[in-house]
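Annex B. Sample input.
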Amino acid sequence: MQMPPKKELEDEILSQEQMVAIISKIKKNATPAVSGAVGEIFKIEKSLAVKRSKDNDKDLEQYTVELHTINQLKHPNIIKFRGSCHYKAYNYLFLELCHRNLTAAIKGGELTLEEIIKIAIGVAQGMEHMHNLRIAHCDLKPDNIMLTQDDEVKLIDFGAATKFNKEGDIGTPGYFLEGKKETKEKACAERDIYSYGTILLQLLRGDADVITQKGKSVSYQEHALSVDDNKLARPGLLLTEGNKTEDKKTKVEKKVMNLVQLTKRCINKDLRSRPKVKEILDKLRELLLDD
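Annex B, continued. Sample output.
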């Protein structure tokens, strides 16, 4: 009798026994790939990441929010949930393993215009899925955007996620409009759009990190809004492979200018003037198809 094909490990929800066995392996051998304020992340083999956080009040609150949120999200551009458990004073989340985060991709070299547009579409699609469920991510930034080996985009880290119109975390400094009334606004799609626009700006400029502006009179975003459109993107973005004819060069320049203008709309100080995610996606898909 032929046995049915075994379900791929990277697709299944892990059993309690499997999770405990993995935790035992972590305790004996593994050192965290990432360690920070939100806990530690371990890479297990080729398909699994394990996020471990302590069972104190602050970490438990973020863990509970993330677990509740990620169980509602089912989308190709959202990190895949594999399981969760509490074991000996720690809380564990088991997640799909990705290749690198967007910060590393930006630091790793100059992304092409096509790669930037594809990444921007992936992030926007994940964000759209959340917004359709009336959930704001509240902490969009390159560190919270993962890329698979095939450069598919996956949003991660939902510990700050909040339902629309509820008070919650305002995110990471540099990715929200600081010192303004907006920091007191309740969670909404428009605040995520501002963070998203900041990520677009980083992709255009090739900046891996938002520049801190201590002692300066303008923020990273305010400076970008004051710069001429044709000077905002890094020069190398216009020198992509195949730009040998004047016609091709003109098309690429037009695409870059369209992306710059979209970015500036996303970081508009007036949240009501920022585009909706559907409008963003329509524009990006149009740019991608315009060859």
